[in-house]
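User: quick one, sequence for these tokens?
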């Protein structure tokens, strides 16, 4: 019989297929204003971070996802993607989330703020983030402290072949930023056995990430471990669920 977690995630996938995905339309400039899980400090931090994201900026997100030459104009994660990730965590009651790459640290703020409100969740370190670059890892830690959610996150600076073998299983959600795209095949091979049935694997801005997209598509074949759906968010967000 399918697990409770797998059933919850299957319900979320059906909801998405029926059109319940946040459209790529202008969102409230108060990025976290509609999220009931947001702590006041994290909400204020995210609102300040995205306060200047006008419709033109969201268009640049979409363009940058499709054309790498425009990537300097994009943020690693838009407010729409951040809100969708928070809704996914709430709907599936995720207990352990992993990110590969930290980018500017904002993605971890969205995730950690949602994890703090999951009923029965971990009191701390519910999010484990891996980063190649020590300077990027420290920048992410500083951002998390300013947002008031650092207690929920463990940022580790290590090679994937070492880091991923030490992960606690099972994992409920993986967010793949672009720090590890050069090792996409190795990363997926190490991650998949650690995902619980029904767990989600999310790849933002998949349109510009050909190497990662090819590996995810291979695992999403009829006999693969993943069932995948590309969502119309920021030019393409790949959402895969472990079978």
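Assistant:
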């Amino acid at each position: 019989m399918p697990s409770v977690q797998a059933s919850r995630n299957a319900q979320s996938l059906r909801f998405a297929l029926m059109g319940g995905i946040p459209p790529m339309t202008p969102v409230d400039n108060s990025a976290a204003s509609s999220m009931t899980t947001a702590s006041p400090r994290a909400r204020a931090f995210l609102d300040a971070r995205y306060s200047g994201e006008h419709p033109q900026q969201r268009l640049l997100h979409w363009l940058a996802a499709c054309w790498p030459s425009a990537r300097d104009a994009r943020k690693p994660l838009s407010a729409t993607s951040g809100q969708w990730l928070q809704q996914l965590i709430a709907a599936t009651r995720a207990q352990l989330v992993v990110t590969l790459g930290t980018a500017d640290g904002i993605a971890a703020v969205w995730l950690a703020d949602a994890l703090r409100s999951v009923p029965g969740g971990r009191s701390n370190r519910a999010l484990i983030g891996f980063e190649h670059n020590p300077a990027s890892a420290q920048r992410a830690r500083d951002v998390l402290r300013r947002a008031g959610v650092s207690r929920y996150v463990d940022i580790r600076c290590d090679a994937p072949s070492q880091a991923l073998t030490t992960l606690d299983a099972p994992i409920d959600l993986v967010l793949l930023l672009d720090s590890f795209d050069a090792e996409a095949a190795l990363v997926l091979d190490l991650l998949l056995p650690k995902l619980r049935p029904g767990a989600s694997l999310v790849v933002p801005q998949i349109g510009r990430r050909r190497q990662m997209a090819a590996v995810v598509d291979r695992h999403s074949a009829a006999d693969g471990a993943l069932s995948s759906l590309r969502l119309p968010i920021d030019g393409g967000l790949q959402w895969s669920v472990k079978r």
